[in-house]
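#random but structural
TW: two for the price of one
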Amino acid sequence: KQTSEKEEEARIALRTVRQDALKEAKRLKDAKEISEDDQKRAEKAIDDSMATLNAKIDTLFKDKEKEILTI
């Protein structure tokens, strides 16, 4: 039970980081510090990173769950 709570906390933290990064990219575009193309590239890079991190979270928590259940 605690493991699933920690997993959800990690996912919430990731979502928060993603939202902040996307807001920053939009702010930079609105301030004309980056182009719209750069913003789209940044959003894609952010989403790719988040997908990778979510997969790692899945793997880590599944491994931990197996470890707990075998003890």
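TW: number two ↓
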Amino acid sequence: TGLTIGTDTRFEFARRFGDADGDGAVTARELLELVRSLGSRRGQPRYHWYFDRDADGDVDLLGDVLGLRRR
């Protein structure tokens, strides 16, 4: 009973920012959900982790939508 090693496997993962369901497209419904979550913070009902691109606990225009960092 040994360990069998198979062939190499390649896995690619890509997700567009704003693509809430991971289907590769950002729909009008998902954009609306993103807009509604702007200004929300972790723990609030409007907060969605998948819109918190910089993972700082909030969904904000500069950090998450425009990709800019505060200094």
